[in-house]
């Protein structure tokens, strides 16, 4: 500004020509002309973002995902790597850094991040081979069009940083022992020591200053059969098994977020096994060799699997009420002819149970009640959000949970028709469940035809049998993306 003021002073007060000002100040003639005769008015600076994330569709897609994830718990949100992998499947050619910068800009001003400074120093631990850590982690998947809570049992081997995971319906003792048994089979051996927290299914009394940890008889019997030494952490000391604590989050964020569509728990266990096997190809952050190589080295220190298979079950004595009902997994279960006997024997497995009379007769055999404990997906809230942003339907995490014919029906490229169809499905959800709409889809659609103003030009009047056969882009259920 001082130079500009000098130019204007020489021009207006001294009446110098542009050439004279240019020679005296040693500036370009055009610069002298600009500041001498033109008005210098302040302008509002409008910063316009540039780049493929702002000029192409990618920014809108990622913004919709981030906006969608803000409504979920932190552990169910996508990570930057998960978003990058999903974008690459859609044809994204940008870099991971480009995406990360965009996500950082998107979050600025939307949430306050509290920075915590820690001055505590921790001792660096050295993990010998064949020592494992075990813990449960609560995750979720989609089965039969509904959310299902998954209690994932994760075991890690800190020496190689390898992990194994089993999808289970609960965290009771039967599920714990069955999950450990399946992990040992996947590993092909038994760790010599396994560290756990003070879970009630394995620990009766935690360690204190005077006494050591007291384990349950069933857990000790299981450990004796497989030949490993159980170790329980001190009370409120989850850091003593920090490797598995971190690995539970790693499995959740990288393999089960967003929630995958599964057929059953065994299906999810198989998918997790494939993902974790592939994950062992990466290089260890410190040892600079692959996790698979470290695991092969660690397997030399494992104990061999026992020759005799260990049966996992729990037997209890119960009495039925006058209605012939027993209490199992916090649910009343009707047992035929149960009231005829004073005592009943209940044999509980991880996924099923059977009720025996005092004479050994099987009165009832069925799946355990928690095997059918699913939660509805909040479709009304989701479809209401889609109505506000109809473009996000084809990129939403929830679109993979829609039944195939309904997804094809609402994913039409014409946004006006898409909003009409979404609104129609939304109105049906007042009196129907999504599964019911899927089963009665053609009947409901036919009944809607009479309410249309121009049925002759009805855009839905097609041969639906041929339409189903031409669904080449049908989603594959059970695929983790």
Largest β sheet strand count, sense and barrel closure: 7 strands, mixed
Percentage of residues assigned to helices: 25-40%
The strand count comes to: 15
- CATH homologous superfamily label of the largest domain: Ribonuclease H-like superfamily/Ribonuclease H
CATH-derived topology of the largest domain = Nucleotidyltransferase, domain 5
Q: How many helical elements?
A: 18
Structural class based on helices, strands and sheet pairing: alpha+beta
What is this structure's SSE topology?
Elements: H1 2-12, H2 18-25, H3 29-37, H4 52-55, H5 58-69, H6 80-89, H7 96-107, E1 131-143, E2 146-157, E3 162-168, H8 173-187, E4 193-196, E5 203-205, E6 214-215, H9 217-226, E7 229-232, H10 242-255, E8 261-262, H11 265-279, H12 291-299, E9 314-318, E10 325-328, E11 331-334, E12 344-348, E13 352-356, E14 362-367, E15 375-376, H13 379-388, H14 404-410, H15 415-428, H16 434-439, H17 441-449, H18 464-469
């Amino acid at each position: 500004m001082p130079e500009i003021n000098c130019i204007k002073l020489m021009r207006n007060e001294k009446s110098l020509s542009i050439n004279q000002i240019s020679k005296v100040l040693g500036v370009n003639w055009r610069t002298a002309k600009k500041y001498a005769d033109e008005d210098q008015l302040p302008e509002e600076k409008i910063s316009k973002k540039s780049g493929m994330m702002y000029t192409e569709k990618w920014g809108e897609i990622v913004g919709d995902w981030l906006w969608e994830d803000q409504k979920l718990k932190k552990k169910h949100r996508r990570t930057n790597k998960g978003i990058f992998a999903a974008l690459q499947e859609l044809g994204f050619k940008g870099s991971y850094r480009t995406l990360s910068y965009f996500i950082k800009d998107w979050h600025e001003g939307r949430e306050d991040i509290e920075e915590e400074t820690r001055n505590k120093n921790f001792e660096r631990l050295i993990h010998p081979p064949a020592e494992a850590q075990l813990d449960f982690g609560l995750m979720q998947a989609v089965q039969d069009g509904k959310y299902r809570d998954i209690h994932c049992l994760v075991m890690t081997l800190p020496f190689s940083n390898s992990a194994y995971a089993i999808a289970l319906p609960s965290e009771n003792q039967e599920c714990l022992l069955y999950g450990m048994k399946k992990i040992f089979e996947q590993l092909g051996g038994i760790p010599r020591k396994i560290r756990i927290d003070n879970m009630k299914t394995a620990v009766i009394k935690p360690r204190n200053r005077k006494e050591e940890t007291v384990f349950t008889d069933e857990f000790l019997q299981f450990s004796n059969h497989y030949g490993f030494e159980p170790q329980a952490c001190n009370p409120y000391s989850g850091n003593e098994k920090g490797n598995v604590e971190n690995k539970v989050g790693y499995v959740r964020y990288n393999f089960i977020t967003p929630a995958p569509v599964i057929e059953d728990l065994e299906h999810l266990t198989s998918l997790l096994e494939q993902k974790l096997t592939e994950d062992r190809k990466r290089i260890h952050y410190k040892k600079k060799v692959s996790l698979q190589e470290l695991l092969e080295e660690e397997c030399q220190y494992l104990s061999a699997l026992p020759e005799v298979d260990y049966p996992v079950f729990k037997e209890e004595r119960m009495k039925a009420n006058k209605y012939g009902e027993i209490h199992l997994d916090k649910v009343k279960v009707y047992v035929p002819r149960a009231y005829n006997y004073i005592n009943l024997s209940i044999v509980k497995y991880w996924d099923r149970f059977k009720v025996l009379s005092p004479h050994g007769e099987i009165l009832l055999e069925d799946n355990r009640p928690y095997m059918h404990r699913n939660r509805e997906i909040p479709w009304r809230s989701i479809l209401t959000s889609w109505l506000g942003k109809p473009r996000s339907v084809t990129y939403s995490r929830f679109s993979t949970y829609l039944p195939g014919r309904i997804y094809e029906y609402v994913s039409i490229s014409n946004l006006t028709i898409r909003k009409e169809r979404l609104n129609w499905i939304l109105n049906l959800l007042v009196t129907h469940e999504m599964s019911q709409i899927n089963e009665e889809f053609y009947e409901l659609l036919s009944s809607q035809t009479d309410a249309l103003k121009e049925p002759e030009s009805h855009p839905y009047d097609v041969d639906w049998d041929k339409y189903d056969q031409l669904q080449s882009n049908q989603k594959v259920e059970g695929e983790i993306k």
